[in-house]
Structures are given as C-alpha cells and as structure tokens.
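Pilot study result, target chain (317 residues):
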Amino acid sequence: MATILLKIFFLLSIFNVSLATRRLNELVQNPTQLLHYHNGPLLSGKISINLIWYGHFKPSQKAIVSDFITSLSPSPSPPQTTQPSVVSWWKTTEKYYHLSSNKKSSRKLSFSLNKQILDESYSLGKSLTNKHLIELASKGEHRNAVNVVLTSTDVAVEGFCMSRCGTHGSSSTGRTKGNDKSYKFAYIWVGNSETQCPGQCAWPFHQPIYGPQSPPLVAPNNDVGIDGMVINLASLLAGTATNPFGNGFFQGPAGAPLEAASACPGVYGKGAYPGYAGNLLVDSSSGASYNAHGANGRKYLLPSLYDPSTSSCSTLV
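Predicted structure:
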C-alpha cells in the first residue's frame, strides 16, 4: 500500500525548512477526525506564484501547468469557467480560514501567476538533493510568494519515486548588509515521473505498481507526466495554503502529518475505492477523465480535499 510521507524538519545553514511530501497512488482512506489547528498562520493576502522550470519542458507542457495556476482565481470578466471548476475546487480551502484564530490569516488568499524562471542548462546537475531544491526555490521572490520548482523527466531528486512525488515547505532568506529583516517564504517541488515512476506518481493515468489493478485513465491534457504533476501540485498547494510553516492545519504527528489533500488519498470522485478513482467526467471526444474545468478550455483531474466543516472528503463530482 502506498503511503503519504512527510520528511522531518531539518536545518540547512540559514534555512529553516519543513517538508511535506505526497505519493499519488495511495489507497482510499476515511478520515474520521478534523484536521487539528496548531495556531500558526495560514497563507493570506495576495500571493504570487513563481514557477522555476528545471530541465527540459515543452512549451505545451508549461502551458498546462501555468493555465492551472491561472485557473485558481476567478475570471475577472465573462465568460465564466464551466462548472465544476478549479475555482470551485479551491473554495474548500477557504473553510480552514474560518476556523483559524490567527489574525495574520484574516486576509483572503488570492493567487496570481508571476514569474516563470527557466533553468534548461541543469545548473545544479541532474541529481538534486533537498538543499538543491531550496537553492532553486530561492530564485523566486521571497515576499508574499510561493516558489514552485518543477523538475523534468531526466532529473533525479532525493527521495523521488522512493518516498515522495513532491514536497512543500518553507525557507527563510538570510539577513544581508543593509537589510536586517529576514523573510520566510513557502516553496513547492514537483517532479515529472513519466519515465521514472508513473505507477507511483502519475496514478490514475498509469497502472499502479502494486495494489488493485484497473485500466489507467486517459489524461485530460494527453500528457501522463504533466497531468500527474498537476495532481501533485494541486495537493501541495492546498497543503501550503493551510499549513505553510508546519504549524497550521494537519492531522497526526508533526513529523508525518496529513493535510488538506493528503488526508483524502486516492479520492477524485464519489464512489472511490482502492484502485478506483471515483465517478468522473469523461470527455466525449478524447475519452479523457477529469473533474474540473480550467482556464483556456483546460480540463484537469484534481484530488479530493478534506472539508473541515463536515469532517469528510469533498469531491467536485
């Protein structure tokens, strides 16, 4: 049975980092208690998302991910996105803010796509450690930002495919000459598993390596690796918003907590059970399975989120 793992807190020079990791082919579980609030701040206010592309990605692949980020915010003008939408999926995270007593979390969270930084020359090599991930994440902005590191299919990352498909955590900028302030920023890393471990990190678009076997679903954007990355990115964004610094909402021990999305593993639609993602929408022309409409006509498959108001997993379909 696949697992959800969270790396323990560690220190790296000036960095104070917490890592949350998630594997995508976990079996369905039924959480029975509310995610506990640990009195820390949630992400709030206007937050920019910076994408750091490490390695080779096609323009079409970058567009799939950037359109997902854009889809998180309501369209400023008609036409409105068809329902169910990425926006309606994200609204479940707002319920955590109603339960938070931290004044810093009172401002409504809104995301916007900001910079896209390319590192196609593999400046740190093709075998990355956790320290490398933080170094890459630090290339983005440090204030009011989430920096997302995306690694290509030919990049090996510490723990990738063995214990995790992605990570979220936080890091602090060091004080510099003339600047006495140190800012803490959130970051996410997600790897493209298409050639390394799609059975672990791209389910249900690939046969799982163990557990109940069922035919893989057709990926909504016709890219098993990237559509798998979107699932993982969506899960980690929900965890980042509601537990950005390791003292927000989570269940279980701090060293291995379940968060907003990881508390509902393997659930994408109603009727989900181990090896079956649930009753999903199917595109009549491509046969692709999805549960959310996004910007620019995109379709995505997004994980169920834990609804703190009902203590249950909330699905779009």
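One observation from the pilot: The longest strand covers residues 110-119. A full batch analysis is planned for the follow-on phase.
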